[in-house]
Amino acid sequence: MSVSYQLIEHTADIGIRVKSLSLGGLFKKAGLAIADLSLERQKTRYPEKHKIAIRQKATNLEELFVNWINELLSVSAVESLVFENIQINQINENFVDAVVVGSDIRNYKINTEIKAATYHQLKVKKTGLIWQAEVIFDV
Amino acid sequence: MTGNIPLEKIDDYRWRIPRSYKPGMRVPGLIYADEKLLKDIYQDKALEQVANVAFLPGIVDNSLAMPDIHWGYGFPIGGVAATDIEEGGVISPGGVGFDINCGVRLLKTNLEYDDLKNKIKDLIYRLFSDVPSGVGSQGDIRVSSKEEREILLKGARWAVEKGFGTEDDLDCTEENGAMQGADPQAVSERALQRGKTQSGTLGSGNHFLEVQVIDQLYDREACDTMGLNLGQVMVAIHSGSRGLGYQICEDYSRGMVASLGKYNINVPDRQLACAPVTSNEGKAYLSAMKCAANYAWCNRQCLMHLTRQVFEKIFGSSWQKLGMFLIYDVAHNIAKIEKHKVGGKEKNLCVHRKGATRAFGPNHPVLPEKYKKIGQPVIIPGDMGRNSYLLVGTEKAMQETFGSACHGAGRLKSRTAALRSINSDILLKELESKGIIVKASGRNTLVEEAPSAYKDVNDVVDVVHNAGISKRVCRMRPLGVVKG
Q1: Would you tell me which of A11, A105, B144, B299 could form a disulfide with B71, CB atoms 3.0–4.6 Å apart?
Q2: What was the ipTM of the complex prediction?
Q3: Residues 354-383 (B) with a CB less than 8 A from some CB of A
Q4: What is the pLDDT of residues B131-149, one digit of tens each?
Q5: From the list B190, B203, B258, which residue is nearest A113 (CB)?
């Protein structure tokens, strides 16, 4: 699992900036960044992979983005999984349909607990050909 | 940076952001700080957030900031805001935060430093192994779905009924460990799922379990009332409502964003999304928030039980004989319906404390009999290398801050900056040279929580004491720390 993102300075919490040529790519990168931010090192005791369908809707793109991240965090916590791959099947400004592939959380040493994505200073926009999102997580 | 915000000096410990700073502010901002702390406060966006909170419908008096204020999301951390329920006052999930009823409890022992100086390493390592901590940690105290719902209603009483404590513990817990009016029906199935496995777990990040020793007394009468002396060993436990609280905040934040249009509310940050306390949305959130608050009180009660068990094993005596009695337990992320005087009239207010501690003064009716004369104990943990404090609330806090004070040292450095600049091995050696044993789940957590990432709690407590909104009782220094 490798994903590129930039950290945004924030006194109490952690923010990230992700960029992609497509909206689906943006959502995928942001989703994978959650796990990357949380991990310290990997073990491989439980090789089984788990696929989960995730669907979210919202009245606008920024809300959809926050809902998407928070749904991933929530499902990850309930299922005790770390999401290693994400396939976006369908996406527009109000709807995302995806399949996420997770591995047992016990394969990881997890350090930072991300509680949720916040609306504070949230930005999801397209400039020229590039989609960019900035989000602050409560940690 | 918030260097362009005009601050009016009221006195050495009070600064005002005038309403004229931003059109839409309904009340001024009032910041408790001295010039030294103000320099740090100016370094991030916390003051802008104080101004933003002043937009909330129904807000009364001031948008308040405690001296440990720092940049949060929506509300600043260290922010207090009260809204008048009868004047359309709102409740905001962002004014409570994701970790609902994150809070701290302090218990005393009859041990002295000499009794444990040769056992401190064993004690901390045993606490680390027996008290579940870390991200997604699951507890040994397993609960069924039915029991989880009972916890949401009964709070810490559920644990006491299970034998994990005493009635006296409940007497020394804010709200006696359970807010009335909690409604499990207002909690989503997902939130229940997230909470089910995490009862009796510390969590991660800034949550901790710390063994301390009293190294300075300030108020003899209050110390005598609480049975505290120089050299006495104390234990502080800092935790919250875990995944249950995060999910409740998320569930209701989604709905509240939609409420902004419905109730024609204008706030400058969607994380301040809110609804009138009396609306269906407001009432539902409050009912769910109370469930998370009760879960957190039960959680800290269970953590205290596990801590007492570890002390019993290490010292070969019962916790009662070790004098491990609870001083008090306070919430510092919560919204409460309280009566306070506004303009000389008693009002029903919704008081948001986001990184702020209730600090009720002497003779307040909700205080336990034994604390009526001295005021409510206010527990202020510092960072893992410096001090923590016990204070009591004052009448001045009732008049000025809706009975509120600071909640900790307050972050100074971002987590990413801490990770860039601090080496974990050197940090551990530095702490060990001060006689502080630390056991953490991860090296990143350790570095993120390094003393240099925080303001000096001594400066923060000086301000609340000198401003008169709480009164110093005693100071502790850390001996050993378990970090989640």
Answers
A1: A11
A2: 0.92
A3: none
A4: 887 655 666 677 888 999 9
A5: B203
